[in-house]
TrEMBL record:
Domain HD residue range list: 58-219
Protein name: DNTP triphosphohydrolase
Lineage of producing organism: Bacteria, Bacillati, Bacillota, Bacilli, Bacillales
Gene Ontology molecular function: dGTPase activity
InterPro entries hit by this protein: dGTPase, dGTPase-like, HD/PDEase_dom, HD_domain, PHydrolase_assoc_dom
Keyword vocabulary terms for this entry: Hydrolase
Gene coding for it: dgt
Length: 439
């Protein structure tokens, strides 16, 4: 069982077991020492990277997801005897694997958050019939683009970590598929899934746990940032505003994944109003406990919500699929009310932060930057002279694996927000930087 989980597809011919470190600990080291991990500090979470020292970036978000996930994994190991049986490689929860998956889950996100992802996907689909999606890009980075000593390409991660990151176990090129894995990497992931005998469409318990802990962080930490920025005002006139309530309801109705939450079982508007009212009342209670100190209130509020979600994570039988699922659980069954509550808080963050008109103005600027960078690089004869030589060397070595449009998308998506703005300024502003700066 260990061998099948610790198998490294990229090192199959020369794989050696480490006597000093567990294989998953080696994966952790490879991830946190990678340039991609460091670049997460310069990529937007909600507010643009560099907006202020307080606000989260993709890096701090990933670390927070990893912390939540590891603690929950330890608890589930202690409280679920069936996990000790290790009956199936996909029905095991190793805290280090979950932590690795959490660290790497946002590696594929481009600069400027979801707007950058949206623009790259639009251009690639419109002009080249190719998709761009952050989760799929994760695997392109981990299995192909990243470099490490002793490897031709990628980080050569273990099968358990690769499948722990794979929360959408599908080929993204399939018709109508919005999330998944690009074809070249899917061949490896599909082979691993076949070896593990994974049921079609099912993720490992480790991937499911990472995914839910990502949602927990999103629905609690991003709201904390929003309160700190004044975008979420902790008073009744804000929380009872009909426009806010209507927009949260619309986000729920327009979500392509709404079927997972059983919204047909409840009056959505009434539930949104109830959750928002409860949230504000809890804030007022904690505010009094903290003697009117807002910063302490924010932190305590966030901590209690993280605890309320994370403490309810458990493992249930997924009878529809003949598998197991990680879920928010109450009295031995999935707690759909708490799941919907978490989703409402996520939509609150989205409506108040991402849909804020000032944020949308910045996103429009980001859209223009990505589009102009793309136009500058996509002509191969001209673009190859203004892309760093090491990238061109990689392209020339792997020309059969890299179409030029995919290569350009890889290059742009690897940029931080600040680096994308720097390159844009060098190309289109009157003066910026120095030719002696190192890229």
């Amino acid at each position: 069982m260990n061998n099948i989980r610790k198998f490294r597809p990229g090192e199959a011919a020369t794989s050696k077991w480490s006597e000093e470190r567990d294989e998953f600990e080696r994966d952790y080291a490879r991830l946190i020492q990678s340039p991609t991990f460091r670049r997460l500090q310069g990529k937007s979470q909600v507010f643009g990277a560099g907006s202020g020292d307080y606000y989260r970036t993709r890096l701090t978000h990933s670390l927070e997801v990893a912390q939540i996930a590891r603690e929950v994994a330890k608890r589930l190991e202690r409280t679920n005897p069936f996990l000790q049986k290790r009956e199936h490689p996909g029905l095991i929860i190793d805290p280090t694997v979950v932590e690795c998956a959490s660290i790497a889950h946002d590696f594929g996100h481009p600069p400027f958050g979801h707007k950058g992802e949206e623009v790259l996907n639009h251009i690639l689909m419109r002009d080249h019939g190719l998709k761009y999606e952050g989760n799929a890009q994760n695997f392109r980075i981990l299995m192909f683009l990243e470099k490490r000593a002793g490897s031709e390409s990628g980080l050569d991660l273990t099968a358990a970590v690769l499948l722990g990151i794979n929360k959408y176990p599908y080929l993204i090129e399939e018709e109508g598929r919005l999330k998944g894995v690009y074809g070249q990497e899917w061949e490896v992931i599909r082979e691993l899934r076949d070896i593990w005998k994974m049921p079609a469409g099912c993720s490992t318990l480790e991937a499911q746990l990472m995914d839910l802990c990502d949602d927990i962080a999103y629905s609690t930490h991003d709201i904390e940032d929003g309160i700190r920025a004044g975008k979420i005002q902790m008073n009744r006139s804000f929380f009872e505003n009909q426009r806010l309530i209507r927009h949260v309801v619309l986000e729920i109705l327009n979500d392509p994944n709404q079927h997972k939450f059983g919204w047909e079982q409840v009056d959505i508007e009434k539930m949104v109003m109830r959750v928002l009212t409860d949230y504000l009342e809890q804030w007022e209670l904690i505010y009094n406990e903290c003697k009117g100190e807002e910063s302490r209130t924010r932190r305590e509020m966030k901590a209690r919500w993280v605890s309320s979600f994370a403490s309810r994570l458990d493992i249930l039988d997924d009878t529809d699929r003949g598998w197991k699922k990680v879920a928010l659980v109450r009295d031995g069954a999935e707690d759909m009310d708490l799941l919907r509550t978490m989703e409402i808080l996520k939509k609150l963050a989205w409506v108040t932060l991402i849909k804020d008109f000032r944020v949308l103005r910045l996103q429009k600027r980001s859209e223009i930057i990505v589009e102009r960078l793309w136009d500058s690089f996509i002509d191969k004869e001209k673009g190859q002279w203004i892309i760093p030589p090491d990238w061109i060397d990689s392209y020339e070595r792997r020309g059969t694996d890299w179409s030029w449009p995919r290569f350009v998308a890889d290059y742009i998506s690897g940029m931080t927000d600040a680096y994308a703005e720097k390159v844009y300024a060098e190309l289109f502003a009157s003066k910026s930087g120095s030719i002696y700066e190192m890229d």
